[in-house]
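Check out a protein:
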Amino acid sequence: MFISFFIYAFSLGTLFPRLADLQIQMEIDKATLGFALIGLPLGVQLTLLIADRIVQKIKFPIILIFGITVLSASQCFAAIFPNPIFFTGILVFGGAAIAIIEVAVNLEADRVEAKVGKRIMNRAHAFWSFGFFAAGIVGAGFSQLRISPFFHFLIVMLILSVLTYLLFSKYEAAEPRRKNKVIKKKSFVWPSKAIFMLVLFSISAMLVEGSSIDWSVIFMRDIFNTSPLVSGLSLALAAMAQGCVRYFADYFVNKFGSTRVSFQSLISMFIGVICVTFSLTPGMAIFGFLLMGAGSAVIFPLAISAAAQSSHKTPEENIASLSQFVFITFLLAPPILGFIGEYLGLRWSFALCLPFLLISFLTISSLDIQKNNE
């Protein structure tokens, strides 16, 4: 199950270390690139409207095998032609694959967590971060060697598609945590009050993580004129810090509780954003990205676990509603941050995370799922 998070993240993370190269290839500014990137979250948001029903009807191995192939293939096709409109349109299909995989792997992790009787969600998301780290390192290497994004993406697609089939074609998914099913067929999964508070709590981590994913490489290139390898390391090392925290987080969550661990995580993100925004050297910026990665590590996994355990609706509905509202951040972030980066500077793009971190501090009590179920 853990390896599914790694493969999913490696497939998704293949795109982002090459954004600087794709920007040059398409001959566009940061604002236009930001709008071009809206294809992924748009596909995610639209598909999340029905994702809960899809994962109920289609087996986990089929979702993973087909979804990884579609996600990787969308990146290949997006890199073929230097046209931002085509780039946006084809990434919508990749976003659709992300939505289904996102709900499926998190739901499977929750079911395994219930089966074994101990927390594994953070460790599962650690493997997601390790996959992103690996994709960042590989992408930085391909960029440094001046290998085109298309051939890079094609190689990754072929390897991951075959590997996913070999590993998961005979995988037996865990039994559902609860047997109840969605009774009303809704096109939009509206969150309960408890889930909406989790949305407000986790939105800052998604924005911090998303801003570093989309813009860290370009930030290093534009602000400090670093080489492709060093620029890529800003993304890869942030993912590694995130993965390391997630891998050991369950021990600290069990010992100190979700609220206390989340509070420390929010502080780490706050300091990291300050370091990046006011960085004077490449090292200071990379240190800031490390803190941002470490701080954003457990927020969304803890929110996912809390949502799955909420008794107001089914786990599928709760996870889908949390995901679709949180991913609105990804829908709005690329064009907004790109616009700010183009006309005010990328430092201000990262500074935008600060007020959302304040909201997370104010809604941290939403993790107390036992109280919220009453």
Remarks:
- Residues 84-116 form the longest helix (33 residues).
- DSSP finds 18 helices and no strands in the chain.
- The mean pLDDT is 88.
- The CA atoms of residues 103 and 320 lie 6 Å apart.
